[in-house]
Amino acid sequence: MTTYEILKGAKAAVKNALLLDTATKNNALFSMAKALEDDADAILSANKIDIDKARDSVSEVMLDRLSLNAARIKGMADGIREVAALPDCVGETLTEYERGGLTIKKVSAPIGVVAIIYESRPNVTSDAAALSLKSGNVCVLRGGKESFNSNKAIVNAMREGLKACGLQEDFVNLIEDTTRESAKEIMTATGLVDLLIPRGGAGLINACVEGAKVPCIQTGTGICHIYVDKDANLDMALNIIDNAKTSRPSVCNAAEVCLVDTKIAEEFLPRLKKRLVDDKKQNAAHAVELRLDGGAAKLIDGVKANESDFDTEFLDYILAVKIVDGVDEAVEHISLHSTGHSEAIITDNEATAKKFIAAVDSAAVYVNASTRFTDGGEFGLGCEMGISTQKLHARGPMGLRELNTYKYVITGTGQVR
Description:
This protein is α/β, with parallel strands linked by helices. 42% of the residues lie in helices and 19% in strands.
């Protein structure tokens, strides 16, 4: 089917999606989860094709984003079940009041056709489908060519799950054209797409934000900062930075910049280098390349940073490091270089933490915790559609509520104006 035909079919399916009750949606989600597990061998075979094609053209960390295994497929299925267990927000009364004899309700309602253009990560396919169905929407999925076979196998399984429940398969749709033309068609499908969510690197997100004629939410790019304050517990800081940088460097909530208060830099930076570079090498783990500003370079060995390093989402074992003169300079640096995703302060000073929280304008602000928690599953949303870095409609991890809008329902007794 052409992209237009798929979009048209998705729009036609909306009227049926709006009528699904909670029990029907949950039953379908459990069926989709079971179908994923039942089709695990086929999904893994398809994923191997994608991995083999990509192996010589992408980095190790990007291969990790693309890779599936039995545990990850089980995690995808469990994520769908977690969405089924969440309260259904469709039809929820947000506010209610009386005026002039009229009962006026503000009621949560699905958006309609939600299109997602994304790269690399096949788990996005199941997350997006589950959240869309539970929130009463119809999804149109357009993954990248590097993950096409994986995405197709996952969608085939989920559509079989829908079919087994007697529901139409058009609630979950995959665009099979992975060229730029299909992306452009989705971006300009006024009247067919109600919301577009790009999920991937800066190039994809910017292309959608700049080229879309349909409503579009900016997501994902994460130049995440960790500021180590002069009153920080340095052992805690090392643990947090190690986790935020190395647990999975290919994701948008990984730390990319470490800011260190000048008052502790002489003590802390050698320990940071030992933890992220020397100890990693000694233990045959992946060492982090430290890109150092002038002040940091005087204290430890590393690569001299250029200005662009503080404006780069590395998605790799690379960390830019800068010495700052206290929390005010840290906040100023973040305001100039952050993408509005996630920032953290490590400090035992409550007043400094409060100042950081108030002054940093990002979707997620942490005190003494890793930025890696910015995730729909970790926030109790089941999974996520993406991390919104804008402020209107949705901000931070997008779950069920963020995939609903609202409408007013007014009940009268014959009133006229």
